[in-house]
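User: quick one, fold this
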Amino acid sequence: MIINGLIDLPWWGYVLVALALTHVTIAGVTIFLHRHLAPRVLDLHPIVSHFFRFWLWFTTGMVTKEWAAIHRKHHAKCETVEDPHSPQVLGIEKVMWQGAELYRKESANTETMEKYGRGTPDDWLERNVYGKYHILGVSLLMILNVVLFGPIGVTIWAVQMLWIPFFAAGVINGIGHYWGYRNFDADDASRNIVPWGILIGGEELHNNHHAYPSSARLSNKWYEFDIGWAYIRTMEILGLAKVKKLAPPVRMESGKSKVDLATLHAVITHRYDVLGRYARSLKDTWMEEAHKRRIDRASVKRWLHSDERKLPQQDRARLDELLATSKVLATTHTMRQELAQVWQRSTATKEQLVKQLEDWCHRAEKSGIVPLQEFSRQLRSYA
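Assistant:
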């Protein structure tokens, strides 16, 4: 009986056990590491916090300080050569299949640990057990799996060992910056993989996270579901968690025609939403103009959603050629760059920025470009 394990299950029972155990691990990553520890947007009861810390050591061997430091550096240096795991820089295949190796390489960077690893657990257990004996936890897990389930326990253990390296280091860091849809025109290449964040605890909604990194909820649209947020709300009701920050909702005040301080504040707060709406408003205009000049749709879409300064040199050259042949595209492109300057200029006073935004709206409405005029009227209604 011991050889076969203490628990005897049908084949599908072992599958459910493996999925349940890996889901707890995913919950630990998204709730404890990604929302509580790294950005500090969520407070957890000490019992919950330590359970997740123990569980992640037991099932992954990850060190909390290393994970938090690497994640913080990723946000600070996103899509640059200093980003620990950018598929835009390193290539999607490398990040997808070698994500765990990239993590281990960056965890050995002392400068990263010192600069970005502050404020993480530093008690006796962390120094003498969790941070010191990485392999002990996962070794004990394998022994326990074999005792409980017999030889099949080794397979369950192998699934647990591969789950986070593949889904967290590979899928989220790779596909989450390469393929999917975008609600917000963030400064990076982040994507929402699917609108239902279940398998990876809500981390599928990666573009939402990069647009509002200080939000404890990753879902943003009515049709999006973040299971990690469902767990957090349940714990909050039970007094085991406290949400500190959420992404502010976009509000529109119909009939508003004057740009004021409230408009300015809303536009700056929701700048990625503003740029996303701008791109969607001008999409058909750009596509029509580009089609006349036989420019492919993929390039046009990329140019419309990107900061010109971040485009490859070849793309910038092709874009310049297109803009030189179309006054409409040149105008809308320039207007996008000028709109972004509203939140990029730190030396201007609030009054100056309000005047700048009002002037932008006035010029947009005098441009004779209907989609631009309609967007300007929408921009005035941000509240």
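User: anything notable?
Assistant: The chain has a mean pLDDT of 92.
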